[in-house]
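The instructor's notes for this session suggest beginning with a concrete chain rather than abstract definitions. Hand out the sequence below and ask the class to guess, before any prediction is shown, which regions might be ordered.
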Amino acid sequence: MWDLMGYLFFIGSVLLLVTVWSHLPDQVPAHFNFKGEVDRYGSKYELIILPVIGLFTMLLLLTFEKHPEMHNYPKRFNESNAAQFYLHSRKMLNQLKNMSLILFAVILFESVSMAFGWTEGMG
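After discussion, reveal the predicted structure:
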């Protein structure tokens, strides 16, 4: 379920960016302060950074998720509880990966919507 949500949000945000690319203004919100207000504008090409970082994060965490034997475990780790440790580690990395994808998708959507004037600040 986490994978479905994470991938759908991420792919949806990339499709949104591709769809509206030609209509985006040259200057788009590039950085936000803690209040969600824009404190720097930049080129629309800076929006490409979000999907690239999201894709890199996804691939890195997916690799670690598929190889739980590479992770660091406490001293109480042994053959009798290895399967349980591996399962918990894989679940944690899966959720972290998909929450990261959702976060990058939301930031991209907010930047695009602010560039078009649909919203005034990041929620």
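Then share the key points. The mean pLDDT is 89. Residues 2-115 form one domain.
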